[in-house]
Amino acid sequence: MVQFKNKTFIGALAVVVAALFWSLDGTFLRPHLSSVSPTLVVFLEHSLGFIILWPFLFIYRAELKKITKKQWGTIFWVALFGGALGTTFFTKALFLTGFVDVSVVILLQKFQPIFAILLSAIILKERFPLKFYIYATLALIGGYFVTFKDPSSINFGSATFMIAVFSLLAAFSWGSSTTFGKYSLKNINYGLLSALRFGFTVLIMLIPAIRYFSTLSSIESSVWKTLIIIVFTSGAMAMYFYYYGLKKIPASLATLCELAWPVSAVIFDYFFNHNILSSTQIIGAVVLIITVSLATRLNKTKIISGVVLAGKNNSEKTGARTANLDISLAKNLAKGLYSCKVDLNGIVYRGLLYYGFNSLINKDSLEVHLLEFNGNLYGKNITAVTERYLRFPKKFKSVEKLSKQIKKDLAQSFNE
After folding, report:
1. Could you tell me if 77 and 181 are in contact, meaning their C-beta atoms sit under 8 angstroms apart?
2. In sequence order, what are the residues at sequence separation of 6 or more whose Cβ sits closer than 8 angstroms to the Cβ of residue 251?
3. Do 173 and 86 touch, CB atoms closer than 8 A?
């Protein structure tokens, strides 16, 4: 239990540090790069970052053989969307503001977890409680008021509208990168993933950046200094901290820790650029941050620890043995089926946790199934740590249909 908490704290702290670096980037560092094309900026900062990170390719070269074809695909996605497209869209949005509405661009990045969760639902077949979709709708309304100081009149061809478009494209790109970044870290070192991400991004940005190579000689020394500072703060260093943290905590918790980004960015924007949000934008920002936080918390890791209770041997009817827990332990847990990790006497097993209506007893129950475990659990204390929300609770008219669903859930868990 203590090990879980320490690991979570250290991982969360690393993500917060990365978020603070990103706040400094948008409000203080990136404005000094406005004389250079956004495309060239992205290419140069990733090229310099890769120079710092490439030793990880040598140090962890043995792990390169462990990367599956599917993982290579997700790493490329992370580089394309998280590195190339996300950073380019973000830089374009900042440059369009003239660094007057920097807070707007950064606040709209809080749509990242919304996009990440929706993408998980579509591609990774994850499911989320109904409240998530309500919160997501309210977040969109909050984002609308954050973007437009006068929400009653919108010019779809205006710079403000384009700033919103580029900001949301950056949020989608980085949100999808978070989803696939967690999978990419499955069996490789966080430093190695950082190096691969930067390396692939350099290759991706090489072709669009070539047309600007003729301007390299005219870049001022102050710009080069800023790029180097970015490498050791919001660039390679922040990415190293971020993947270090993401390796230790769920993606859903990481997105909550990233809230340090918009909050600190608004403060930095005030002190560095003397920009203040309008009252309408402040209200929208509060709605956006609260609803995104609530939406993300629905899929936040929950730790449930208790003594296994004696059951009624219903497992014989369904073909899957489960450990029954006191239903009061499910406080603040959304009903449904979760994948989880289960600690039993210091040994960690993969498992499934179900909280919701149980068709066999005709009432709600809290149950845990340990994958690849056949021993007796009655009277023993177990700790279950939820990971992914897999599906909503269901009612079944027959034991046969329930058994069929359980087999489907087990097959999905074994194939993850």
Report:
1. no
2. 116, 178, 179, 181, 182
3. yes
Task: Classify residue 110 by its DSSP letter.
Answer: G
Give CA–CA dist 336/184, Å, rounded: 26
Reduce the DSSP state of residue 137 to 3 states and report it: helix
Would you list the DSSP string of 161-186? HHHHHHHHHHHHHHHHHHHHHHHHTS
Least Cα distance to 135 among 295, 271, 273 occurs for: 295
Q: How buried is 259 (Cβ within 10 angstroms: 0-12 exposed, 13-18 middle, 19+ buried)?
A: middle
Query: Topology of domain 303-414, per CATH?
Result: Elongation Factor Tu (Ef-tu); domain 3 (2.40.30)
The strand pair at 347-358 and 381-391 is best described as unpaired
Full pLDDT tens readout for the chain, 416 residues: 445 456 677 888 888 898 889 888 888 888 889 899 999 999 999 999 999 999 999 998 888 888 888 889 888 988 999 889 999 998 998 888 877 777 778 778 777 777 777 776 666 555 566 777 788 788 878 877 776 666 665 566 677 788 888 988 988 888 878 767 766 767 788 888 889 999 999 999 999 999 999 999 999 999 999 999 999 998 889 888 888 887 777 666 676 677 777 777 777 887 887 877 778 778 877 887 787 777 766 656 778 889 988 766 555 555 566 788 998 888 778 788 888 888 888 888 888 888 888 877 778 889 888 877 777 788 889 999 887 777 777 777 666 776 777 777 766 655 55
Closest C-alpha among 252, 239, 273, 290 to residue 17: 239
The encoded tokens of residue 266 equal 């608004």
* pTM score, whole prediction: 0.64
Distance CA 275, CA 173 (A): 26
Task: Supply the angle between the helices 38-53 and 86-97 in degrees, to the nearest 10.
Answer: 130
CA atoms of 213 and 194, how far apart (whole Å)? 25
What is the amino acid identity at position 314?
A: N
> Where do the structural domains in the chain lie, given as residue ranges?
2-297, 303-414
Query: For residue 319, what are the contacts with CB-CB under 8 A and spacing of at least 6?
Result: 403, 406, 407
Secondary element (H or E) of residue 308: none
